[in-house]
Amino acid sequence: MRPLDLIIRNGTVATASDVFRADIGIAGGRIVEIAERIEGDAAVVDATGKYVLPGGIDSHVHVSQPSGEGIVMADDFESGTRSALYGGNTTVMPFCLQEKGKSLREALKAYHALAEGNCYTDISFHLIVNDPTEAVLGQELPALVRDGYASLKVFMTYEDLRLSDAEILKTLDVARETGATVMVHCENEDAIRFLIEKHEAAGDVAPRAHASTRPAAVEREATHRALTLAEIVDVPVVIVHVSNGQSMEEIARARSRGIEVIGETCPQYLVLTADDLSGMDWEGAKFVCSPPPRDKAAQQDCWRGIETGVFDLFSSDHCPFRYDDERGKLNPKGRRSFRHIPNGIPGVETRMPILFSEGVMKGRIDLPRFVALTATNHARTYGLYPQKGTIAIGADADLAIWDPQAKRTIRHADLHDGADYSPYEGLEITGWPTTVILGGRVMICDGELIGRKGDGAYRPAAARTTAFPAKA
Ligand code: URP
Ligand code: ZN
Ligand code: ZN
Ligand code: ZN
């Protein structure tokens, strides 16, 4: 047997199904041994008193993506994946945006060039289909799915991104034929435009109006429509960043009709509310994202979805813009009306600590459910399992060692992304990942970065061969 490179000793190991005491032996970047006691003269990481979990997979992350109005994101692949790594992630799935009039391959070439040699975690792309021409849907997309680009996102909102129902149907049909997995952003753009015009006409232009012009009904209707389109085509679908109970009911109802649907929610819907958008002096702009955070009742509903299985995925939807410039503090246009504030908030580093602290430590979910929601189900949904997302013989040695006693207060100054604030500033957290291992390489050791950019690599994804592989 090949000698071990690294042994993780004395930890409490958790997967999506079990929690057990074991040592883990690593060779050639993979897990090769799991046993009560592993001897040998390999390097040792002592995990006494700690949890050893699969490295987090954040399957909803935006970096280096141009936003409308020429605004630049605060994170590139280097800072975004570094921040992700500090938050216990070993794989992130950023989006690759097709520009109108251009091909998907052109977009991929540009994003690969940005990512190459710059990542601290492994990455795998989702395509954003923004110009579904016959050539794109007929030839390009099927070839790309075969080449390992097996997931894509379509938008029902944003003037520059929305697809018509006809375009969504055609895209879903290609997914059915090829085994691609489709994520849908569900908000009714026409209803939002109608409400924005009303609010602007009434002089209601502050950040809070962002939430008022995107009420739950706008999301519920679009969720129902997306699920109906998927039902008509007969293809599984992922409903991303679900913010409220009404949309959850649509998912549950669709499931009862036999539709295969994966539900995703995010930290902002568990710990923020629309009141956060009311901050004085344009501070509310720090919380503008779509769908917007809602009220305490919606938070409770989303927690119920985390606990009961309406949600399979817990992602950050990390989409960072600096407050000082892009969000409008110094940007006169952004300051004129909420409609010019770029949508999206940072959170790739705080995603798992928030769910660990608020979920596991407060007794809402157990450790296997935490692992399923933050790693295993992402790998299963997007074609990276079982290489990623679990602790098993032969899997990549992507691990995060968590100190369940660590107490921290979230301060942006302690985070590692490129934004200039955290929407979770001041939130008290119990439990934090202290050591992070990527493909057998110790990247963060007791909170200190020792890995280098370029240690993370691109990982192709497999297309679905059945309906969704069984969920954890
Ligand atoms: O406001 C958000 N969520 N921005 C990121 C883009 C998206 O829709 O996921
Ligand atoms: Zn979205
Ligand atoms: Zn997003
Ligand atoms: Zn930051």
UniProtKB/TrEMBL annotation:
Pfam families: Amidohydro_1
SUPFAM superfamilies, per database record: Composite domain of metallo-dependent hydrolases (SSF51338), Metallo-dependent hydrolases (SSF51556)
Domain of life: Bacteria
Keywords of this entry: Hydrolase, Metal-binding
Record-given protein name: Dihydropyrimidinase
N6-carboxylysine sites (modified residues): 153
Any one GO CC term of the record: cytosol
EC numbers on record: 3.5.2.2
GO molecular function: dihydropyrimidinase activity; metal ion binding
Family: Belongs to the metallo-dependent hydrolases superfamily. Hydantoinase/dihydropyrimidinase family.
Domain Amidohydrolase-related: 51-442
Record-linked CDD domains: D-HYD
InterPro entries: Amidohydro-rel, Hydantoinase/dihydroPyrase, Metal-dep_hydrolase_composite, Metal_Hydrolase, Metallo-dep_Hydrolases_sf
Gene3D superfamilies: Metal-dependent hydrolases (3.20.20.140), Urease, subunit C, domain 1 (2.30.40.10)
Cofactor(s) essential for the protein: Zn(2+)
Processing and modification events after translation: Carbamylation allows a single lysine to coordinate two divalent metal cations.
Gene behind this protein: hydA
